[in-house]
Specification:
Blueprint (H helix, E strand, L loop, with lengths): L1 H23 L13 H17 L4 E5 L6 H8 L5 E5 L12
Helix pairs in contact: 1-2
């Protein structure tokens, strides 16, 4: 069990370091992380959110099912938001009608 906790902490730290470097060097980045468990995703989000906030970085959680037009949502939020944690991404884009 201790090994699993260490692996969890190591993975969270790795994600946090990646995002911190992207911010430090002003490199826009998209990081995708897929989870088999909703409980695991929630735990990772909480831990990552805490680590980024400790660094003074702003994080916004976005439910893509609620905000269908993600590009517009990001565009409106860019001046104040550094990181977005998106859930239900498969629902986060407007459907295009057939031409």
């Amino acid at each position: 069990m201790i090994e699993a906790e260490e692996a969890f902490d190591t993975r969270i730290l790795r994600l946090s370091n990646y995002l911190n470097r992207a911010h430090k060097y002003n490199k826009p980045s998209i990081l995708f992380a897929l989870y088999l468990s909703e409980f695991l995703r929630t735990d990772i989000e909480k831990s990552l959110n805490t680590l980024l906030k400790e660094q003074g970085l702003l994080v916004v959680s976005v439910d893509a099912e609620e905000h269908k037009d993600l590009p517009s949502f990001f565009h409106r939020s860019i001046p104040t938001t550094l990181f977005f944690l998106c859930t239900i991404l498969r629902k986060g884009f407007l459907k295009l009608s057939n031409f």
